[in-house]
Write a structure and sequence with these properties.
Elements lengths: L1 H33 L2 H4 L2 H8 L3 H15 L11 H14 L2 H5 L7 H19 L9 H15 L4 E11 L18 E8 L5 E9 L4 H6 L2 H7 L7 E3 L10 E2 L8 H27 L14 H20 L27 H15 L2
Parallel strand pairs: 1-4, 4-5
Antiparallel strand pairs: 1-2, 2-3
Helix pairs in contact: 4-5, 4-7, 5-7, 7-12, 8-11, 11-13
Length: 359
């Protein structure tokens, strides 16, 4: 009799445990499908958490919703809104643990899937929002922006390379180890005088030289074909001197050359500031956040998507919070000086020096 009672008791306990688990599942699923920070957080908190305004997030939701909703028709699946917010929060922090603690009802696996899905959709559908100036009106606008900095004419962009830390890949790991000793994607960016990205190339392992990356871009091929129309980029001495890519003098011999170097440095500094703001806005790119713990291909996609989102934030004049100062990472990112001085590039540079800084 005691044995039968014991079995009956165990069966009742099992039924109660199943009910508890069912209730917990329902509650978690309700959170995942119903909790919406956009409805409860003030504007300042939304920008701090997600780096974009409420309106911009709703705009992005309109972009991703048709492509993510098909994935969510099973019971209690993550909604497109939750997936988008989770991805934005990950971009902002670089930390799975902070996102998991935000009450969105995510597991680590579901967060990883959400980041991948949202990144792929945004990469595909936002890419056209970043473009190098090609029309006379756009070129004139960019030229005027740079001319206002230090008087240099016909500047069409400032170029630089930056290292985005990642987890060391299991395949070809040594190729990703940069000169600073950690795994990274060496990313080439070109920006306007206002710090808006005009071109981003994120595909090369951290050991790759800036000059090699530049010479293997579509932008370089366009410049070689005369696509810059007599305009030029400004780059540091890690890039080759070309008629369409002006670098500083390694050792200025005259006062006009020194004057050119000063104007070049001040003008090109806009790209260093742009990179600093970008990495601080989206700390997943920042070494202080531990690096992107993703497959290299996914890392490259995240890099480009965050650059697109940075442009969105910049156009809306969304500032970083006052207590989030910039970290000077870029001072360590500059490559050694190289001696690739094309004669035509030297001629263009000297002509600019003579016209602007000569007696």
């Amino acid at each position: 009799m005691a044995a039968i009672q014991r079995i009956h008791f165990l069966l009742q306990e099992r039924r109660r445990e199943r009910r508890r688990r069912s209730n917990t599942t329902y509650i978690n699923a309700f959170v995942r499908t119903s909790f919406n920070p956009l409805e409860v957080l003030p504007d300042e908190a939304i920008i701090r958490k997600f780096r974009l305004s409420r309106g911009q997030i709703m705009e992005l939701l309109g972009v991703v919703h048709p492509h993510l909703v098909r994935r969510t028709r099973r019971s209690f699946a993550l909604t497109p809104a939750v997936q988008l917010l989770a991805a934005l929060r990950f971009y902002a922090t670089g930390s799975y643990y902070e996102v998991l603690g935000d009450g969105l009802g995510l597991s680590r696996a579901s967060l990883s899937r959400a980041v991948t899905a949202v990144t792929d959709v945004l990469l595909l559908h936002l890419a056209e929002r970043m473009s190098f100036p090609s029309t006379p009106e756009d070129i004139r606008r960019v030229n005027q922006g740079f001319h206002a900095v230090a008087g240099l004419p016909r500047v069409i962009g400032a170029i630089d390379g930056t290292l985005v830390p990642i987890a060391t890949p299991s395949t070809h790991g040594p190729r990703y180890i940069c000169r600073k000793g950690y795994a990274a994607i060496n990313t080439m960016v070109v920006c306007s005088a206002e710090g808006e990205f005009l071109d981003v190339v994120a595909r090369w392992p951290g050991s790759t030289h800036d000059a090699f990356i530049w010479e293997n871009t579509g932008l370089c091929r366009a410049a070689e074909g005369g696509g810059f129309g007599g305009c030029w980029l400004l780059g540091d001495s890690g890039f080759p001197l070309r008629p369409f890519l002006l670098t500083p003098y390694l050792h200025a011999q005259t006062e006009p050359q020194a004057g050119y170097n000063r104007a070049h440095k001040v003008t090109r500094a806009v790209v260093e500031r742009a990179i600093g703001v970008w990495k601080q806005r989206f700390r997943c790119l920042n070494k202080g956040a531990g690096g992107l713990q993703l497959h290299p291909r996914k890392c490259c996609a995240v890099i480009v998507v965050t650059a697109l989102l940075h442009n969105m934030a910049l156009r809306a004049n969304i500032q970083l919070p006052d207590d989030e100062g910039l970290h000077d990472e870029e001072a360590e990112d500059n490559l050694p000086d190289i001696q690739d001085l094309h004669p035509a590039g030297q001629q263009v540079r000297q002509g600019l020096v003579d016209n602007l800084f000569g007696p």
